[in-house]
Each structure stands twice: as structure tokens, then as C-alpha cells.
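ugh ok fine here u go
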Amino acid sequence: MNPFLRLLEQPRANPALGTFVMSGSPLVAEALGCQGFDWCVLDMEHGTLDLAGVLAMLQAVSSTSMLPMVRIPALDAVTVKRVLDVGATTLLVPYVEDARQAREVVAALRYPPHGIRGVAGNTRATRFGTLPDALRTADSRCAAFVQIESLRGVDNLDGILAVEGLAGVFVGPADLSASMGLLGQAQHPDVLALVDSIARRCRDAGRLVGTLVGSRADLHGPERASFDFVAIGSDLGLLQRAARAELRPVGGAPVASGGGY
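structure:
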């Protein structure tokens, strides 16, 4: 079974907590994994990672209990194949807006006859040909979540949720706010209300759902606490927040922030 799905199956009072790794640093990723995060996103979309970087990051976090999810730059079957071959088992695919795209995600994840993933036996994913039944069990070991981050994606959510083989949904509040004409206002009440409504629809459909918040303090109210998995900012955001706190004058006003996660 996929390790990330196994994590989310465990009974818990609160969402599984993770963070985005934007720095591209294997050392930072490994250090975060030693702090107790359940999972992380290794980010190829907005981060600096290429395939070699993803490999180094996967190797770094493998020494910790933090489970990696790789966000690919866009829906592309070749990228999916290559990232899976270097050992990723859980993918996050950005900007999926309809059921057709969701079906393409699932097809890229699976070997024929159930999909279109290219076959190679001597890869890190197969432990270089030593993993028993690696090709036969690959489909069950790999999972993909799609990001809902546009109003078109929200409109087509029911069709997306009905796609067989899709692990679940990740709600992207930053791009969703932009799609709503509220660029840079991910904490706007209208954005938060829409995020919560998406989560309810996912749960009603029996689908796993996650999202991103700026800090643990943003996990307030029953709707936020009922997400299956939540990312708290990013490695760079956590670093900047700690740095600002140390630079803040005693009793003075906070140092201005550029915003973001």
C-alpha cells in the first residue's frame, strides 16, 4: 500500500501535519524530517528542484519518518514517469480543472493496461531490480493527489472526485484566491468559506482532502480541524518567521513581512 495513504488511514484527532520544502536543500529537508513533521511536499512547481534534486531530497528524507510528496511542475506524463522512477510514490499535480485531466493523472501513474506509464525494471523505484514483484505491485504503491486552485476546478469538482484511482484533493488557497479576484488574500473570509465548502464536498464523496495554512494558529474551527492533512507554510517561511522573531526589538513592533507561506 502507498505509505502516505497508510499514514492517513491511522486514527488521529488532528490532521497529519506537513510543510512545503521550497529551498531545494536536502540538508534542510532532512532536518525538518527530524522535527516531527508527518509529511512534506518536495516542490518542483515553485521551487528550484529538477529531477536530480528530487532524487537527492528523497534520499535525504528517507532517513526520517517524514513522508515525501512530490509536486510536479504541471500535468505531464513524462515528468510523472521520471519522478516515479527515482523513487517517489506520492505525487501532487497542480491546477487540475476537470475530470479529463484527473483521468490523465491516474493514467500517467499506472502501467499498461490500466495506464500509460513507461516500464523500466532497473530503477531506484524497483530498488534496482531487487524489489520482489516491483512492477506488479507498483500501481498499489503509487498515489496522486490533484490540486483544486481555480473556480473552474471548483465547478468541475464532482466530476474530478468521481475519477477512479485518484487518491484525493489538495486545495490551494493562494491560487484559488487569485481566481476569485482576491489575489494575495488567501485569508479573506470568502476564500476560507470556499476552501471549507470544497473540503465538505470531498468528505461527502469519501475522498481525502488537504490544504495549506500559514501557521498552526490558522487551524481553528471544526472545518479546518477536519482536513485529513494540512501543510503549515514552507521551510523558507518557517525560517523567515523565526528570523523576524529574533530581530524584533524587545517590546517593539514586528519587522515587516513580505507575506506568503
